[in-house]
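Continuing the batch. This is chain 6 of the set; chains 1 through 5 are on the previous pages. Same settings as before, nothing changed between runs. Recording input and output for traceability.
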Amino acid sequence: MMEKKKITFILNPISGTHSKEEIPNLIEQTLDQELYDYTIRFTEYAGHAAEIAKECVELEEDVVVAVGGDGTVNEVARSLVHTQTALAIIPCGSGNGLARHLCLPLDVKKAIGIINSYNVETFDYGVINGMPFFCTCGMGFDAFISLKFAEAGKRGPITYAENVLKEGLNYKPETYEVEDETGAKRYKAFLIACANASQYGNNAYIAPGATMKDGEMDVIIMEPFTALDAPQIAADLFMKTLGNNSKIKTFRTKSLHIHRNEPGAIHYDGDPIMTDADIDVHMEPGGIRILANPKVEEDNGQPNPVLNAFSDLFNNINNVREDIEKRGKRIQRVNKVLLRKLTKL
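Output for chain 6:
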């Protein structure tokens, strides 16, 4: 008879939007107990999930399950990197960025079904100034919007994102020196995001096309924009068309050094911390084992052609509106000249 696999479920009782009271019963009813011997542990303070996961690695357990939001997932995952213990996720947070990118079900029973399939794959993760991240990290306005978008829920995501972006107009752009393998460039930017996975959560795609298996991060630089640009940027975030936006510069790299004029906030998977003026980001290819969905590959953010067409239409409407405004101003100027000439007669 095959020896059972050891699995520990780490529940954060206060994270996210879901009540977790029913989860122990659902585990009991749904988990394949011929495959697994299971334990359930509850976190009691910040950082406790990382400590429990580390204990599980020392006990050579096969799987540790993060039951919670992206913060809980990050805590558990960072204790599992470069080990044989695999991460599994039961997403119960508000954003669920990594689970959505990996096409894991948001329904608890179905998420346990993925765990029963025991499909272990290796994925990349990133490190920013020594802190591991699995979805995104960034600086500038990015720390603010990644948190806001993760909390967006069902609040009319495009309108919500538009309002968040307009709040950002109060945020002062910074000048960054960004250096990768190709050399150094200077950018004036509202934010710089480095993405291992495609989204912040709630299907807000900061890096359409990002994959966790290419050994590279997608770097997104959002240049200063106006209130008129906010609706289009918001639409592009949810339509997976951000790369088409003129305010966005993107490239891929394995490592990055960023210098800014003064210390400030950065975030890793939405968790903000203060750090100094110099920031180093690099990828760790194949550094974490994750129980993946055997039926679906990761969501690499391929644009939807219908939404793309809508986005193009939106752009064209904006262009037409700008043309009309320009022509109107030209006519006003001509009228003023004519009026001056007529008054001299």
